Amino acid sequence: MTITVEQATPQAEDREAFIVAMRRAASTVTVVTTSGDAGRCGVTVSAMSSVSADPPSMLVCVHANSPAASAIAGNRIFCLNLLVESQREISEVFAGRCAQSRENHLASDLWTRLITGAPVLAGGGAAFDCRLVERHRFGSHIVFVGLVVAASCGSGRPLVYHDRGYGAVATDPGTREIDETGAMLGLLGWGL
Questions:
Q1: Among 192, 30, 158, which Cα is nearest to 95's?
Q2: Beta bridge partners of 42
Q3: The whole model's pTM is what?
């Protein structure tokens, strides 16, 4: 079911206030990749999220003018690669802020694949290999929803983006409690 809500045109000052406020939201840095007849490419994104565990699904928002948007739509597959703190340069490459091209980087030996054939970053924090099931245009972006057909987990602290800068999640080993099965009961002093 789709619910249509009337869209108001925001005033310039409302848009600027939104952008400034969104800088306060810390997000995991992710490179979304795809490969197939519609092309092999990737782009750095901050807007991605799980949708459901039943069935396992993810969403990602990609600017409609990005070559990655048309490639994901055409290939009908994508992989969300969550970066770790040592992979800032990879984020910069796929954000278009480095001299190295995205295509050359994807051809390097840093990439592998799981089930769909979308590039998976070796040494990343996690990867979600997805088959595209829905896409929606909203404003300047396309929201892609995918069923997760494979996932992998790496190690390392996640690379985060906040207030126009990179950082990592700080943990204090003294605040973690481990139960008899080895499961973590708390992080940064918060109980589960």
A1: 30
A2: 33
A3: 0.81
